[in-house]
């Protein structure tokens, strides 16, 4: 069985750099090749212009006649390079050979150029200076030129000269030359080694290729360092993820800059903070549940171990205690489930008439015995709420007020309006909450160990706070020795109708919010 070879793992840094280098290299290659062909075509076009200029210079030599000592450097503006090199009349020349010799002698070939004079199909004149290649060495080329000019026209073409050493393709011009009254015929030939001209362009682009290669290497080095710096937050994210465990989610990633990666880092840090808070809350909940369930389990077990089954009285007493403790554990489990659901923030809101909801909660609270219930204020407003959840939280506040207030005391229920928010509150006449205990009562299983003296699961107020947070709100608390006032503050849209002024309650000291104070909108309207 063949072993599967795993593919190499490329890091994001390597892939980014590879893409940059590939694009840069392809771009330079395309630019270099395109520039090379454009420059080569421009050089070939320049060669044609140079050859035609040579024909024009030869025409000038023929026109000036044998008395001239120099060749004019100006190209006749009306000269047609495609016309024959011979003038309309050249009475000063005695033969085509003589005129062709003057042309060959006066026109000096340039670098990578050569000239040749043919008379009656044979080589008659050679350049007067040393040239890089000799056209007369290729007999086939000489015969070709002679045949092409038999029609009396100037020929511009390209030819391969295998018989000439170190010369490949040449670009040539052949101009026929005749003298009136002379029987011989001449042809002036000028040629340029195209390959050598093109090789100069190639040498320039070899230099370009070296510079481009060095540039790619520099880009690779700079890109590697820059990509590493830009991707450093991702690397730190990976390192932080490797260090995160179920027992430690405190690792955070340093935020540097204000770019997209910085925003991603902040988002990941927020996620880690939420995970840390969730895991901490879960551990705390498990610890608290274990602590809270330990007592009733111990009580039930102790009574069962000491129970004498032969004594019916002890059996009935143990049974009553076991049922009582099991009921307490059942209530605790129910509260834990309610708290978990509230903390998940899964509430479906709908537009609710706050006045109707206030009347409904007040009617339900009146069923709690031992107190005088009073509807203090009901505001005419509409707010996005979950009626069932808000009713649950509001009645929990009412139940707490009933538990911790003296028998027969008055408990007030009402709803108040703020600028952009509503408050659903309950006020009692109990002994108040000490300042040092006001934060503890919103913790899981938090209780007041003072004169209130009522036992409970300690999850009521945390459930209320969780329901308020699920509505983007918070719980307010004002407490003094004259009583306490709890309120659920819920933000409402600005377009919601504002209620009429609410009745102000008697002043009280102390205040606590389970959300940042900046979220509380204004003061209650009078």
Strand content: 15-25%
**Main sheet: strands, sense, barrel:** 6 strands, mixed
Distance between the termini: 86 Å
- Helical content stands at 40-55%
**Uncertain parts:** 68-79, 81-91, 450-454, 495-526
Quickly give the structural class.
alpha+beta
For the secondary structure, the number of strands is 13
- Rg from Cα: 53 Å
- Number of helical regions: 10
What number is the mean pLDDT? 77
SSE pattern, N- to C-terminal: HHEEHEEEHHHHEHEEHEEHEEE
Shape: rod-shaped
Strand line-up in the sheet with most strands: 7-9-10-12-11-13
Describe the protein's topology.
Layout: H1 12-64, H2 96-106, E1 113-119, E2 122-125, H3 139-148, E3 155-160, E4 169-178, E5 185-193, H4 194-230, H5 232-243, H6 260-306, H7 312-343, E6 350-353, H8 354-365, E7 372-377, E8 382-385, H9 387-404, E9 410-418, E10 421-427, H10 460-470, E11 474-480, E12 483-491, E13 512-513
Parallel strand pairs: 7-9
Antiparallel strand pairs: 1-2, 1-5, 3-4, 4-5, 6-8, 9-10, 10-12, 11-12, 11-13
Helix pairs in contact: 1-2, 1-4, 6-7, 7-10, 8-9, 9-10
């Amino acid at each position: 069985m063949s072993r599967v070879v795993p593919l190499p793992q490329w890091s994001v840094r390597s892939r980014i750099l590879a893409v940059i280098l590939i694009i840069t290299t392809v771009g330079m290659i395309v630019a270099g090749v395109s520039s090379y062909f454009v420059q080569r075509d421009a050089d070939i076009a320049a060669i044609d212009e140079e050859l035609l200029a040579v024909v024009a210079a030869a025409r000038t030599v023929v026109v000036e006649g044998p008395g001239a000592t120099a060749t004019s450097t100006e190209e006749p503006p009306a000269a047609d390079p495609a016309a024959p090199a011979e003038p309309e009349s050249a009475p000063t020349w005695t033969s085509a050979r003589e005129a062709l010799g003057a042309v060959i002698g006066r026109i000096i070939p340039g670098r990578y150029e050569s000239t040749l004079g043919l008379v009656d199909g044979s080589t008659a004149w050679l350049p007067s200076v040393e040239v890089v290649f000799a056209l007369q060495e290729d007999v086939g080329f000489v015969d070709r030129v002679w045949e092409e000019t038999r029609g009396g026209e100037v020929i511009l073409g390209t030819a391969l000269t295998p018989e000439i050493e170190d010369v490949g393709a040449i670009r040539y011009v052949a101009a026929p030359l005749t003298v009136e009254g002379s029987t011989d015929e001449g042809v002036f030939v000028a040629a340029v080694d195209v390959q050598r001209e093109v090789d100069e362009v190639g040498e320039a682009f070899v230099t370009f290729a070296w510079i481009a290669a060095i540039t790619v290497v520099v880009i690779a080095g700079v890109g590697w360092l820059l990509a590493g710096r830009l991707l450093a937050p991702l690397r730190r994210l990976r390192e932080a993820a490797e260090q995160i465990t179920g027992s430690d989610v405190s690792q955070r990633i340093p935020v540097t800059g204000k770019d997209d990666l910085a925003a991603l880092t902040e988002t990941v840090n927020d996620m880690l903070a939420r995970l840390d808070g969730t895991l901490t809350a879960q551990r705390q909940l498990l610890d608290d549940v274990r602590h809270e369930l330990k007592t009733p389990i111990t009580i039930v077990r102790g009574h069962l171990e000491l129970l004498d089954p032969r004594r019916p009285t002890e059996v009935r007493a143990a049974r009553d205690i076991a049922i009582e403790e099991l009921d307490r554990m059942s209530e605790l489990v129910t509260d834990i489930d309610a708290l978990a659901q509230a903390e998940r923030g899964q509430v479906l809101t709908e537009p609710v008439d706050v006045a109707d909801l206030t009347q409904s909660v007040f009617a339900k609270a009146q069923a709690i015995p031992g107190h005088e219930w009073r509807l203090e204020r009901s505001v005419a407003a509409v707010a996005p709420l979950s009626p069932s959840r808000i009713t649950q939280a509001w009645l929990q506040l009412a139940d707490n007020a009933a538990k911790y207030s003296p028998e027969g005391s008055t408990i007030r229920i009402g709803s108040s309006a703020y600028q952009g928010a509503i408050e659903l509150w309950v006020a009692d006449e109990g002994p108040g909450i000490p300042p040092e205990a006001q934060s503890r009562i919103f913790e899981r299983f938090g209780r007041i160990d003072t004169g209130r003296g009522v036992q409970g699961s300690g999850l009521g107020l945390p459930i209320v706070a969780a329901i308020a947070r699920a509505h983007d709100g918070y719980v307010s608390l004002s407490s003094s020795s004259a009583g306490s006032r709890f309120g659920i503050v819920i933000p409402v849209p600005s377009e919601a109708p504002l209620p009429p002024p609410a009745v102000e309650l008697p002043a009280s000291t102390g205040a606590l919010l389970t959300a940042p104070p900046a979220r509380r909108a204004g003061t209650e309207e009078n």
